[in-house]
Write a structure and sequence with these properties.
This protein has about 180 residues and is α+β, with helices and mostly antiparallel strands. About 40% of the residues lie in helices and about 15% in strands. The protein has helices at about 1-25, 35-50, 60-75, 105-110, 135-140, and strands at about 55, 90-100, 150-155, 160-165. A hairpin with a 3-residue loop joins β3 (about 150-155) and β4. Residues about 1-25 have low confidence and may be disordered.
Length: about 180
């Protein structure tokens, strides 16, 4: 009988540990440590491609936040018009999805999934489908010349908008992503 109670005690202790694990590990929730998780998602892919990691840039994140708020208020997604020269221009990736339904890694993961349509070559002739739009988010993430990123998430009535800005901007016509 003692063995049975020892076993039940161990099972109960394991269950209690499992239930408390989020508390002990510092539960973050769906959007906890958003900046770190977005950066890590970008850099996992860049590392897999043999590229240098991106650094987080607060100025790019502020620019992204302003545009994300406008998109969320409008409920529609569109790229912001580019301004400035090659030195000050920012690359941009946009994502829209149902509010509360996606983790940051999944948002960036949808851009990375475009790699399935990517073929090496000069921009814009890099898509197996013949449509640059099918790979443009991926190539911006993988752009060899980009070294910084800043992102922001804003919620609208039904959707969330993620805007990531990159410096140096990628997807330059006639150049290779990596």
């Amino acid at each position: 009988m003692t063995r049975r109670w020892d076993r039940i005690g161990r099972i109960a202790a394991a269950g209690a540990l499992l239930l408390s694990a989020p508390l002990l590990g510092g539960a973050t929730g769906r959007l906890g440590n958003l900046e770190g998780r977005l950066l890590a998602a970008h850099n996992r892919e860049r590392s897999a491609l043999g590229l240098q990691p991106l650094a987080w840039d607060d100025a790019l994140a502020r620019d992204a936040a302003g545009w994300a708020a406008k998109l969320a208020a409008a409920g529609e997604i569109e790229h912001e018009e580019e301004s400035g020269d090659a030195e000050t221009s920012e690359g941009e990736n946009l994502w829209q999805g149902t509010k509360g339904a996606y983790a940051p890694e999944a948002m960036v993961g949808l851009w990375i999934a475009e790699k399935a349509n990517y073929r090496a070559g000069p921009i814009p002739a890099v898509s197996r489908t013949g449509r640059f739009e099918d790979v443009g988010h991926f190539t911006q993430i993988a752009w060899r010349g980009s070294d910084r990123v800043g992102c922001a998430l804003a919620a609208g009535v039904r959707d969330e908008m993620l805007v990531c800005r990159y410096r140096t901007a990628g997807n330059v016509e006639g150049e290779r992503a990596f």
